[in-house]
Sequence to fold (235 residues):
Amino acid sequence: MYKFEEVKAHCDIPCAIYDPSQAQYSALSVIRFLDLINDIKDDLGNSENMAKFVRLVAEKESHAVITKNEITTIWGDYFKEPQFSAYPEIHELTHSIMMNASKCKQSLDKENGASLLAGVNRFAEIFWATKDTETESKISPYLPNLEIICPVLKDNN
Amino acid sequence: MEPNYSSNDHVFCIKTKKIKVNDVVVLNHKIHGKIIKRVQSINKNGLFVSGDNKSYDSSITNECQPIQSLIGKVFYKV
Fold:
């Protein structure tokens, strides 16, 4: 009689969950803050608007940093050699997202926000592709009502 | 390795160096012992492998497995 040897599939526990959606929501927030700041920047003669302006700038800064942190965490911790080989653009894309997030912090130009979101959406598309998950383009149900790339989730059968 | 391989499955391997991408192989890992994985890429230094279950990550996917660690290529599952 032949004896079978045991082999294992191996998995690291605890398993980290990675998801670029937080980066996407933060990028959308940055664009929203740019819009709100641009709406009141020429009317800072009263203390009410000045206080609102200061808060909006602080939140814009904060969400740009969140976007950076979420992207660099996924790029640094999740992506490994096989994914880098399959998607070599990911390095330059990650760097461009960092640059655009910094531009959003430094200026009020909404074009920087649009570039930031486009980069983050492409990052999300690549991320889900590495998990063999299809993606689709949707419009965010809240302002600034812009495109976000979402994973196509399976039905709960 | 789910859904393609599950716990208590039996696999038959053939000892060969003719390995290509997408082959399922059994390796003798220096820390984890005998493991079963799918070949993702091959270079002059060895193999990069990964599991079929994309819901779970394995640190093994980040390592180049030397060709000497290869026990065999799976050709049949029961």
Q: What stands out?
A: The first strand of chain B starts at residue 11 and ends at 14. Chain B has a mean pLDDT of 86.
